Amino acid sequence: MNPNDTNNVKDLIIRYISERNDLTESETDRVESSTRNKQDADMLQSDLNSLSKLAEGFSPAPLTAIQIPERKPLTFSYMAPALACGLALMFIFFTYTLYTPAGSSGRMTIETVYQEIESDERFMNEVNALVEDVAYSDFYPETTAVESRYDFSDDFIEVIVPI
Amino acid sequence: MQTTKTDITQLAENAKTGDPEAIEMLVTHFHKDIFKMVFYRTGSKMDAEDITQDIFVKLVNNIHSIRDTSLFKAWLYRIAVNKVTDHYRKKAVLSLFVSKPETEDAPWTASEEKISSETPSDALMKKEFYTSLFNFTKTLAKREKEVFLLRFIDQLGIKEIAQTINKNESTVKTHLYRSIKKFRGNAEFRNILGGSHES
Predict the structure, then answer these.
(1) pLDDT above 90 covers what percent of chain B?
(2) Model's pTM, two decimal places?
């Protein structure tokens, strides 16, 4: 007999035990039609049955009864505090979201920034002072340690911004 | 009285809504099977008692979360498999601090299992069976061992095993095929089993 064929039959016998329903008709027939193959399969099955039977018989019986713990029911009284907290948090969240004007805090567009600057009188005065010709008063050269020999207008600018 | 799968599903359905009687009936029905399952994985009666208690506590505390009550048995065995894994994990951590014994015997040899009514030949046969089973399962890979024990010790079907270990049926069949192949080649173990069913 071809040794490959012998191995195939051995595998088939194991599959006959482990997954009999998946075998094709011809595969089942190959095991069942041969006396030797059938005997092999039956012996293997018998040993496995014996294993189950002995394991059942030799298993000791549990001595202590199971102490069933009292299950905390999911009733309203148990859940009420958690539900109340959840509802309160949801209320706060929605109130804050609905009544806070959009764009007042996080969403500040360039337009709103400009409007805010424009409406701030003190800030605008500072801006105006900067853009006017007399923006840099006399104390500026002192504070910036620029020598007074420089003519404030052109000389000063050449020092500050070299061409 | 034989409890059918439909009865179990109905009991699980009632237990899910918090019916204490249904919970108690489920615990009573599965107590012995789960104890046996744990015993053959730990080899200790004392550990089996403790772990079985933990499994049923988990059942009671989590039964409300079961989605499909028709899969109750697989769900319970999954809890059991996870608890046994936890047990071995704890043991592995503890073994880092406690010195190991010189030889690794089958756990049942050091078991507290001694029944006075047992005849010496029965005790010997039992010991031989435990040792052979232990030695055989040592030759199997982790997943093969789990599938083999669930199939032939706990007598679960392929579908139930797949649900228990969260693998598909073809994977279970592959592991089962490999474990049976190793069993087939283990003449020593098969002799013990063959001798017992012939007598």
Answers:
(1) 63
(2) 0.68
A66 inside 8 A of chain B by CB: yes
pLDDT at residue A63, rounded to an integer: 85
Distance from CA of B35 to the nearest CA of A (A): 7
Per-residue CA distances from A6 to A10, A37, A46, B186 (Å): 6, 10, 22, 18
CB B148 within 8 A of CB B181: no
Q: How remote is the C-alpha of A39 from its chain's centroid?
A: 57
- Report the first-to-last Cα separation within chain A, whole angstroms: 103
Find the residue in A nearest to B48 (Cα).
Answer: A62
* Beta-carbon separation of B27 and A66 below 8 A: yes
Chain B CB contacts of A59 below 8 Å: 32, 35-36, 39-40
Q: Could you report the per-residue pLDDT of B77-103, keeping only the tens digit for each?
A: 999 999 999 999 888 888 777 665 544
- For residue B191, the chain A residue with the least C-alpha distance is A47
